[in-house]
Amino acid sequence: MKIFVNGEAEDLEKKITVAELVQRHRLAPESTLLELNGVALHRREWERAMLGESDRVEILRVAAGG
Question: Residue 63's pLDDT is what?
Answer without folding.
Answer: 79
